[in-house]
Specification:
two-stranded antiparallel ribbon; 132 residues; mainly beta; single chain; globular
Length: 132
């Protein structure tokens, strides 16, 4: 599984980290729920699931070889007392809801550094969130 992230709409409404999971193997694999994400320090608390997200996070999405699934980390930056980072830690959740191994993810794009006061995570989907 290849995990990548791009900082999209930096400093604008809809500011988020687009997380992409691609099956680079030769056998099908799956994702479920939403990724466990820790911004900045890997010892920080995992972000909560977005209350504004669609239901259905318990559904398993099968990724055939070359298949892709998307999630997003919503970033909310209110004022000057924010945190900044250019990487985060991500773990996939198993069918039992527990986190798997944690991976460091470094951002691509024009503005890889991101800021936040609050943040949350969306469920995995076969469609890109906020694709505008």
């Amino acid at each position: 599984m290849l995990l990548t992230a791009v900082h999209r709409f930096a400093g604008q409404q809809g500011d988020h980290l687009l997380v992409t999971a691609t099956n680079k193997g030769t056998k099908p694999c799956w994702v479920t729920s939403y990724p466990s994400v820790k911004l900045g320090d890997v010892n920080s608390t995992a972000l909560p699931h977005s209350k504004k997200d669609n239901p259905g996070g318990g559904k398993q999405i099968t990724l055939r070889p070359g298949g892709t699934a998307y999630s997003a980390v919503n970033l909310f930056d209110y004022g000057s007392k924010h945190h900044t980072a250019n990487s985060f830690a991500l773990a996939l959740r198993g069918a039992n809801g527990h986190d798997g191994p944690t991976y460091s993810v470094y951002l691509k794009g024009e503005k890889p550094q991101f800021s936040w006061n609050e943040a949350d995570v969306l469920n995995w989907s076969t469609k890109k969130p906020y694709n505008f």
